[in-house]
Amino acid sequence: MTYRGRHRRQRRGRALRGVLAGTALALTAAATIVSASQAVSSDNPGPLRSITSAAELTDFQLKEHLASKSSLDRLATSMGGTVGVSTVLEHTNRTLRGAAECAPTETGALPVAPTATHAYCWDEADSASQRWLPQSVTTSGDADEDGRWGANRVILSGWTHNDAKPDEPEVSRGLARIAVIDANDLSAMTYRWVLLVVPTEDGSDYRKLESSISGMVWYQDKLLVTASAEDTDRKSLYVYDMNRIQRASVDSPAVGRVPGGWSAHGYGYVMPAVASYSLTGGACDPAADDRTPCFGSLSLDRSSTPDSLVASESFAAGADQRSRLWRYPFSRAGDRSGLLAANALGRVNAVEAYSTKATGIQGVLSYRSAGDEKADWYVGLAPAVKDRHGTLWRLDAEGAKAARCGADGESRRCWGEQAESLSYWEGTGEVWSLTESAADERSGWLGAPVPERVLYAVPLSSITGSLK
Known about the structure:
Elements: H1 2-7, H2 16-21, E1 49-50, H3 54-58, E2 62-66, H4 69-78, H5 85-90, E3 94-95, E4 97-98, H6 104-107, E5 118-121, H7 124-127, E6 132-139, H8 140-143, E7 154-161, E8 176-182, E9 190-199, E10 206-208, E11 216-219, E12 222-226, E13 237-241, E14 246-247, E15 255-258, E16 261-264, E17 269-279, E18 295-301, E19 308-313, E20 324-329, E21 347-348, E22 352-355, E23 361-367, E24 376-381, E25 391-395, E26 400-402, E27 419-425, E28 430-435, E29 454-459, H9 460-466
Parallel strand pairs: 9-17
Antiparallel strand pairs: 1-22, 2-17, 2-21, 3-9, 4-5, 5-29, 6-7, 7-8, 8-9, 9-10, 11-12, 12-13, 13-17, 14-17, 15-16, 18-19, 19-20, 20-22, 23-24, 24-25, 25-26, 27-28, 28-29
């Protein structure tokens, strides 16, 4: 593919396994978190049920919308040109704290079983804020099979503005940002924020994304993020070009063109959308589980042929609706790097879909081991009651399995607390995830003074080995 010549050095992906895996850290959540009241989980999602009806599969069909290259170029020229990921990494201004520097309440949000091999807490300026919620993660292990973007190993984390707070000014509502993390040295990771925006059709301006990003995948030179059901343009996915990061020139709360230049709500960089996908059946219905789906979580499956984007349906934990899982193939055309496989009419069809009994899915992953006929699906489920650990289930046609933990060994609430997103870095064999909990969710519980927001990695082999 043409993108590889621009962004890859020689293939070193497999060699990264030993560098990144390291010795497992003794990172376990406090035993008091798994109480007797949690002993038996009732959220078993059951087996996968294949959806084969042509009519039902049509519910997942997407329509592709490509932004005009001339309009994108006009915007870039007006802003002084584009920069790449490496430029952002050269100007990181936040530091991720290692596990030893995290507060007990933060490490208490980590999985109980299996335990994490890497864990990080955000810069205190971000970890203490209730204005933003971390919701998704993807890595350069998704972007390229050698695990690098150019010379760098990179992790991206998507955060959505917490619009639930009533005192938020209108200009802040609907903001979405990406933490671009320098992961070259896992003992000293730093990051910088990039604001996601949507350009006007003529490229004369841009606006805030105005959507949550519960799912995110970096594939080749594109970043695909979810759009919420309330998106004003009725899009389901937005697409960003990692080579079209642009500098803001004015430090103000505004987003877009302002007197004297360009503003990004105080951030130094913006990334304008270059494409989007909408469901051909119309806007999704958050209350329906048998029609046009609302996108929840996303991840990349490199074990499929071709590589594919997998998705889950968005429903709150404890809802009556049950979530579906499905996948779209990525394009193999050299001039469509990072885009989904669309037909001549710009339609993208799901090639596989399943129904489950799951609700409250906050992370989805599909992976087929060598020699296996079909892929295993993993879903992270949030408990209906906040302030408790979730469950990571592996699903297949026979049923579902999850780790057990707790004093009596019967609880399945062993995964991260309010954990969001799953991303498999094939070169290291690790699954990355992050916790979302905000301080007000834990008010008065164990006297927690700060949000329990942690970025962590767990070997997939540990996950599969813990299933019972």
